[in-house]
Amino acid sequence: MTLAYKSFRYLYTGLLLLAVGTGCNKAVEIDPPTSRIVSQEAFSGNASATSVVTGQYSAMISNRGFVSGINGISMLEGMAADEITNYLPAVMGSTLQEFYTNTYNVGGSYFWNEFYQRLYTCNVTIEGVTASGGLSTAVKQQLLGEAKFLRALIYFYAVNIYGDVPLALSTDYRVNNTLSRASKDQVYAQIIADLKDAQSLMGETYFKGITAGTTERARPNKLAATALLARVYLYQKDWANAEAQATAVISNGVYQLEQDLNKTFTSTTKEAIWYLLTVDPINYATYDAQAFIPYTNPPGVTPNLPGALSTSLVNSFEQGDARRDKWVGTFVANGTTYYYPFKYQKNPSGTPEALLVLRLSEQYLIRAEARAQLGNITGANSAQSDLDAIRSKALLPGTTATDKDAMLTAIAQERRIELFTEWGHRWFDLVRTDKIDELMTVLAPQKGGVWDPNHKVLPIPYSETQLNPNIKQNPGYSN
């Protein structure tokens, strides 16, 4: 899908199927007037309008979605960084190897198509819900809040993966056809505006269907918007606001750090702020389990899936860290031990698993970093106390860091361990803290590539630059 006229003459079949909750987005071109009629029909009642929004989650969590599985952000950005080793580049296809060696193809769309498909449906929802007279006030506010939250989430990943990106905020193809790339500052300003709107529109209760009040956290609420806003402020180096938003989540009392590491990634975990539910047809709890965990203990020399953890990551765990025991799996082939992420499991017994998007541990780490940057290093209600809260559930002693530089180093290490193979955190952390060039200059050649500092961001797909001359390619890539 492109940003040009073809992609913004909306997906007639896709919208109808979304309206009944399937999450399918197969495209059939129609004229814009008909598209507007379909939108009005889809948002005429609470149930159908809600299905359009919940269909987004079904699409995102599918094995073709950008959030999970073999082509998801966790796998590919983990490949790009120093988290995952690709043992089967020839078998698993070129995309994994391109990320592993940081040598990207301008002909590849990578995440782009999925991002803009999801963004278009967000804009359809915002326009349709706003114009609808058939929705209850509670449902209308919740759906608007969810759509703005999702638009912010997708733009957050788009701007961190591609840099400057077109900022499409409507379904008007005549406008979207000619959009140029908005600056990162403009995109972040829109992300913040959307999240503030989402905070004001949604309450703290979770919705299921058209009813408020459920123990499931499968749809975002006000606190999910707050948690994402805390992350956005951290990336913007707005330390005071990052601390304030993270504190609003932590002090609310709805969430708690999960002391039982085996329960962290289940649908009943105490620290889930927002997750995506999925039931895989091959009996996996999540597509991340399918992507990362070997099907069998293979007799061959190498793993049969490219989800093996890098030696540097495995060796970075401290002695006695419970996360090493609970979240890292092992298998042996021909006398060699391989390690893989075991946060998500195959066929988990007991409580079903859910793909965590936002969880409380990250909020403690956000607040710790913000407090350290503000000079609040040790003592009660400090960076130290926040970091120790994370270390405690891993059965580790308190941090020994007592000055700003040491504390920031300790927080970066804790983020690497706590958030490994989740949502590209490691890659984005290396980029935002200006550590990426130092690491990749050494690491990329070891992985069979050559590091180019321009490759902090992916290339804009060739098709986009050809269809819309206002979209310019990122430096370091040639069309």
From TrEMBL:
The keyword Repeat does not apply. Residues 1-27 form the signal peptide. Residues 336-477 form the RagB/SusD domain. Its main location: membrane. InterPro entries: SusD-like_N, SusD_RagB_dom, TPR-like_helical_dom_sf. SUPFAM superfamilies: TPR-like. The keyword DNA-binding does not apply. It comes from the Bacteria. Residues 104-234 form the SusD-like N-terminal domain. Pfam families: SusD-like_3 (PF14322), SusD_RagB (PF07980). It is found in: Cell outer membrane. Keywords: Cell outer membrane, Membrane, Signal. Belongs to the SusD family. This is RagB/SusD family nutrient uptake outer membrane protein. It comes from Chitinophaga filiformis (Myxococcus filiformis). The lineage of its organism: Bacteria, Pseudomonadati, Bacteroidota, Chitinophagia, Chitinophagales.
